[in-house]
What does this fold into?
Amino acid sequence: MKKVIVSSGGAAADEFPCAPSEQTVAAQPARAFPVKSRRRKRLSRFLLSLSAAIARVDTADIDRQLDFWLGKLARFIEVDRIALWEFVEVEQKVRCWFSWAGPAASEAGPGVSSDTFSWLIQKFSRGRTVVWQRIPDDIPRVAEAERTWAASVGAKSFMGIPRRSESRIWVLNFTTCARYASWRPGRVRRLQLVGEVVLGAILRQRAEQSQRRRDENDRALRRAMPDTVFVCTREGVYLEYFCGNAADLLATPHAYLGRRVEEVLGFEIATKLRAAFEKASRDDACVCLEYAVNQHGEPRHYEVRVARRADGAFLCLERDVTEFRQAQAEIGRLCSELIHFERVHLMGHLTASLAHQLMQPITAILSNAEAGFRVLDAKVRDDEALRAILQDVQVCSHNAADVIRGVTDLLHKQPRPSERVSLNRIVQDVIDVMRSDLILRQVGLVTQLSQQDTEVLGDAVRLQQVVLNLFLNALDAMKERDSQQRTLVVTTTTRETEVELRVCDRGTGIDPRYLQEMFKPFFTTKTTGMGMGLHICSEIVRTHGGRMSAQNNRESPGLTVLCVLPLA
It folds into this structure.
């Protein structure tokens, strides 16, 4: 049972129950306002009217009604101020949420602060009603801050009635400034009921305002959200939907609500949704799936996220990802174009080498043709010599054709299907293409190819592009070095599940800060470079399930580029 604290004479407060016996009431000293039976009945009728009016009032009109009725109450019980304080325990702050003041208190502000009310807050936190009938005599000596506050507002009597609501304490307090008040237990009980009514109205107003704000936020969120939300039963029946624009739906709302998924989206999509329902229910997780439907003769792609609600229904968040999928396809096409452009760019670097490669078999064919004519012009016909000449012409023709075929394959625009290819074979093919370039640039070549299986699953032409690009970068890095120091070391190493390619040059290396940046687009250390070669190589390796990195050589100048691919 709540207690009422009555302080007198500056001594510690005496406590007694809120519902004291008649003997206790009679024992209280009669002061300014003796309470007679008729006046008690008038007060009771007034409080009933106040309670009924505030209970019926609309929340939008609560502030005006509280001001009206609390003003009437103040005049009826002859107090100069009625205020409603809100104490937030977590924030340790006190706010004056509502205040009515009569003429005698018009110049005195509420003076609300947590420091001012430290003693009062301690009592209110325990649910105690605090009564000071004569100020400052009734204020305990330990409540010095409260004594100062009371003097600043000119208070002669004070009563505070607390009520707790969650993490807040609401205090309805009454202050007289013109005369001393006699706060008898019966009046205290009745005013405690007023506190209950006022707090109930305030909480009802706050709850409705909070719900109204949530509803407005939900409506704004639904208008701004590009997604459509459906609610389905476990059996796949549409219960409700939320959509910013119903025109975005595949069909009109009545075509959804109350109907099964099979009737709206077809059996195949319904099967996927039901499987998602089962998984979301079993794992208590969000399940994602995609499906495509024809809308106005065009395919539309949708991404759906399914989650189970507490009532057993399922929320289906549906998003149209058609434009995203189209953008992905366009990005893929542009990447393919870029890769092909880089490949043509590489072949431009090899023009002199390829010309030299082709000049060798063509020169040999021409020499053999002249030798054949000499054999035919001879008086004694030598069939064996003529056969050897023709065989040599045949070999040289095949060599020239192989060179041209390799260039044609490398310039082929469309990607080829993945197949098992030997990384050693790819390295050897690139070395054959680069052999003349190595000679022209006076670069020594050292190869250390693995004797174990180096087969990977992928596109041989694109992997050739990667190796070719690494070779050309290494040659460019060594062009300023003396010819005796130009050495290219190519190594393949087979591990348990991977094969590693190392291309090591004897150039100048690279600033360690740029080792991670060099595989990003448009990064280059060359004055004429585009900065796309290594980026394209890293993307090709990534699509083959591998990775690329680089490091400066430890024991010699230069850079080593590593390419790791999974074994087939």
The longest strand covers residues 298-308.
